[in-house]
């Protein structure tokens, strides 16, 4: 998919996803952030956590603060230790997306967030890809999207997250232009990105999700910003015997 990102549709997708991720992660705070896959998407550039890693399943990828060559199904982090994980098309190209998502849930801290980008099979792009697969079986045609990977639908992804105890905080679609390969034609259909969210919102070529890891029965306690000062002991009046009047005052 890294080569496909260099094509006009790929750059169109990359620009949209980069903008969505930047706006989502800029106000997420913590200590440890991790991106898995898609090195061309700098998913942590807008985040300010002190420790950021890029996890890749092959060597030679550009580094953020640190680069980890790892199996996404067995991340080298203890449980409940990472505050933010970004998955740009990671699950689509994982050998076992279920295991990868379970591992993400394991290493995330309670109330930690996962950011997911995916391609929508129920879109103009997805329909062209299905048609191209049929043509290829007949011996002709060319795929519009990368051949590898399995595209996971938006609602299916939400179900996976819900089963693992995540709560979807935000989700939306984007990229409503048709599946054309040239830059000129993509620009001619730019008006569809303005009308798409209103007239056919669930048929965008890509979707974006932010989910929070919820832990049942957990209650977060905030710092005691204001301490109530201890009340000083109040004076208590004592009913006593009034002093006797002197004989000289009589």
UniProtKB/TrEMBL annotation:
This is SAM-dependent methyltransferase. Residues 66-116 form the Methyltransferase type domain. Keywords: Methyltransferase, Transferase. GO terms for biological process: methylation. The keyword Transferase applies. SUPFAM superfamilies: S-adenosyl-L-methionine-dependent methyltransferases. Gene3D superfamilies: Vaccinia Virus protein VP39. One of its GO terms (molecular function) is S-adenosylmethionine-dependent methyltransferase activity.
């Amino acid at each position: 998919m890294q080569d496909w990102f260099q094509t006009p549709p790929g750059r169109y997708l990359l620009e949209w996803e980069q903008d969505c991720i930047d706006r989502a992660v800029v106000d997420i705070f913590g200590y440890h952030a991790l991106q898995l896959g898609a090195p061309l998407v700098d998913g942590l550039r807008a985040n300010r956590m002190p420790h950021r890693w890029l996890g890749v399943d092959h060597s030679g990828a550009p580094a953020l603060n640190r680069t980890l060559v790892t199996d996404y199904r067995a991340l080298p982090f203890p449980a409940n230790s990472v505050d933010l994980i970004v998955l740009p098309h990671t699950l689509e190209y994982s050998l076992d997306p279920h295991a990868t998502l379970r591992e993400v849930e394991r290493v995330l801290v309670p109330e930690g967030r996962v950011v997911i980008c995916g391609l929508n099979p129920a879109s103009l792009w997805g329909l062209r890809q299905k048609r191209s697969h049929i043509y290829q079986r007949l011996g002709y045609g060319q795929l519009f999207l990368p051949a590898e990977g399995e595209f996971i639908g938006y609602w299916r992804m939400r179900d996976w997250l819900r089963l693992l105890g995540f709560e979807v905080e935000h989700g939306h679609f984007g990229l409503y232009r048709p599946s054309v390969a040239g830059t000129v034609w993509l620009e001619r259909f730019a008006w569809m990105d303005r009308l798409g969210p209103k007239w056919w919102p669930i048929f965008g070529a890509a979707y974006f999700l932010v989910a929070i890891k919820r832990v049942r029965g957990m209650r977060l306690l905030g710092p005691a910003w204001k301490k109530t000062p201890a009340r000083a002991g109040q004076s208590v009046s004592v009913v006593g015997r009034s002093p006797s009047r002197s004989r000289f005052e009589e």
